[in-house]
Every structure is written in structure tokens, then in C-alpha cells.
């Protein structure tokens, strides 16, 4: 059984797609699976069962990256092609069953749209695939969490400035959390690159006891570290979806992006939105008090 799985360029969308991919792995445990994705998401599939190879799609002018993908896939006779990008390439390959996601945005949860492609309702939760080295690296960075001394992950970055809750809010947020959990410790998560580091720096400076858990880790190591935290609080981003997929209780912060489409999906998840029309609300309008109240409620929920 040879399966071609064409998923997203962006990390968040790629994470969301892991639920249906994991369903395929369980249905065909001996399948050899090729995943096509963007470079940011490639590491997500490193330890996936049944992985034959990852084809990294690097965007080129005139959509030439699609031609590159076709050239890489054309020699193979595929038993199944799952195309979440709604591209024409699936119909230009030798393939048995084809499952092609219609392109464009539509109302409702993205994870539900993906589930419906396989006839699954409710849609399966996203997942992460880790190995023992990931777990050991995480244990070296993130100490054990406990009900009285939780490790609370904070994700102050995003790929668009409009999604970013003001970094000045994290100190008063932490003060409110620490009033209930005085032995709690923050862990700051962010992606690679100078821009992500600069966005995270004010939060690291404001919380000197924080664990610096960003910038230099593989995606699977980051997922393992998130899995050791009692709670994740962060902007609508790939890290938010990765935290939920890792099983971490996750609180998403939404402003001009749509929680009705991209709210975190996992065992214990919640989100808060800035006041105003969905998709147009400035995230700066989301108050510290509302985020703290939701975060404390999630912590209480997981400890009962």
C-alpha cells in the first residue's frame, strides 16, 4: 500500500491534518506513506509510523513547486492520494483512490472539514509522533509539573502581527496566575529565527524565572516539551495547535483570526476572543483578566 499525503505549508494547518493521517496509519498499518508539505512543517513527520519520505515543497515563482512535486511523484503508482491542498496534481498522477479537499475557505472548523474527507464525524484529534530521544530532550528542559507547582507554557508569537496579544500583558497575566499558584513556573515557547526571538524577548525579560523553550529545538522536541506542561496559553499559531496535539490543556487567544475555524482541538482545549466582530476584532482588546480567568478555569478542570 503506497499513500501520498499532500498537506499544508503552514505549521498550524499541517498539525491539524495529523488526525486524519493517523487514522490512515491505523487503517493500513503496513502502508508506506509519502508526505508532501512545506519546509516549516517537515519535521512534524520525522517519527511517523510508516513514513517512506517527506517531500518538502519550497514555494517557487509561477507555482513551479507543483511541477517539482509532480516530477517527484509521477514515477510511483499510488494506491491512495490524499490532497488537502485541492490541487490538480492528484489527477495527473497514477493513483487508485483519490481524496481531494476542495480549495478555498468555508465556514466551520477546519478539523471538521478534514474529517469529513474521510467520512469521520467527529473528526479525530491531531496528534504528534515522538521518539525516546525527544522525550529525553524534553525531560532535560522541562521539570516535572505538579498540581501545586505547574509548568505553564506561554506562546507570545505568531506569523502575523495582528494575531499577537500585546507582550506587555504577560507580566500582569503571570502575576494573576501566581496569586493562585505561587510555585508555578513559566516556559516560553517560540519558533526559530530572529523575528520569533525578538517577539519572545520582552516576555523572557519580564519573567526572569522562565524556561527559555524556544528557537533551537526540533518540532518533535518542542511537542515533547509542551506535553510536559500543565497548560499552554498563546496566540492562534502553529505552536498553539502543536500544544493541543501534544495533549497539553490549551488556551488559544484570538483577535482578528477566527476561532470558529481554527480553535485548538485536543483533549482539553478552550479559547477566548477579543470583543468585536469575529475576524475583525483587535486582539489588544482581549483583557488580562479574561485570559487569567479562563486559564485558571482550565487548570482547575485538569486537576479534578
From TrEMBL:
InterPro entries from the UniProt entry: Glyco_trans_9, LPS_LOS_Heptosyltrfase
SUPFAM superfamilies: UDP-Glycosyltransferase/glycogen phosphorylase
A Pfam family the protein falls into: Glyco_transf_9
Keywords for the protein's UniProt record, in alphabetical order: Glycosyltransferase, Transferase
The keyword Nucleotide-binding appears for this protein: no
PANTHER family assigned: TETRAACYLDISACCHARIDE 4'-KINASE-RELATED (PTHR30160)
Name of the protein: Glycosyltransferase family 9 protein
Amino acid at each position: 500500500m503506497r499513500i501520498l499525503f499532500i498537506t499544508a505549508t503552514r505549521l498550524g494547518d499541517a498539525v491539524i491534518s495529523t488526525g486524519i493521517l493517523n487514522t490512515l496509519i491505523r487503517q493500513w498499518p503496513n502502508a508506506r506513506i509519502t508526505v508532501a508539505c512545506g519546509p516549516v512543517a517537515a519535521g512534524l513527520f520525522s517519527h511517523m509510523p510508516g513514513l517512506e519520505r517527506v517531500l518538502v515543497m519550497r514555494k517557487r515563482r509561477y507555482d513551479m513547486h507543483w511541477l517539482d512535486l509532480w516530477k517527484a511523484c509521477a514515477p510511483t503508482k499510488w494506491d491512495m492520494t490524499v490532497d488537502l491542498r485541492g490541487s490538480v496534481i492528484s489527477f495527473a498522477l497514477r493513483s487508485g483512490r483519490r481524496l481531494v479537499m476542495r480549495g478555498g475557505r468555508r465556514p466551520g472548523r477546519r478539523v471538521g472539514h478534514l474529517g469529513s474527507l474521510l467520512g469521520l464525524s467527529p473528526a479525530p484529534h491531531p496528534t504528534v509522533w515522538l521518539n525516546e530521544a525527544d522525550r529525553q530532550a524534553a525531560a532535560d528542559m522541562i521539570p516535572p509539573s505538579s498540581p501545586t507547582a505547574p509548568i505553564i507554557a506561554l506562546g507570545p508569537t505568531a506569523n502575523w502581527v495582528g494575531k499577537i496579544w500585546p507582550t506587555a500583558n504577560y507580566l500582569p497575566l503571570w502575576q494573576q496566575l501566581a496569586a493562585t499558584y505561587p510555585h508555578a513556573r513559566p516556559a516560553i515557547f517560540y519558533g526559530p529565527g530572529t523575528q520569533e526571538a525578538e517577539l519572545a524577548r520582552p516576555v523572557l525579560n519580564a519573567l526572569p524565572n522562565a524556561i527559555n523553550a524556544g528557537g533551537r529545538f526540533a518540532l518533535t522536541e518542542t511537542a515533547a516539551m509542551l506535553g510536559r506542561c500543565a497548560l499552554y496559553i498563546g496566540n492562534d499559531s502553529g505552536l498553539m495547535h502543536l500544544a493541543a496535539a501534544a495533549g497539553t490543556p490549551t488556551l488559544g487567544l484570538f483577535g482578528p483570526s477566527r476561532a470558529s475555524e481554527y480553535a485548538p482541538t485536543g483533549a482539553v482545549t478552550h479559547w477566548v476572543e477579543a470583543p468585536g466582530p469575529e475576524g475583525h476584532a483587535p486582539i489588544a482588546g482581549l483583557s488580562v483578566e479574561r485570559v487569567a480567568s479562563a486559564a485558571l478555569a482550565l487548570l482547575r478542570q485538569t486537576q479534578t
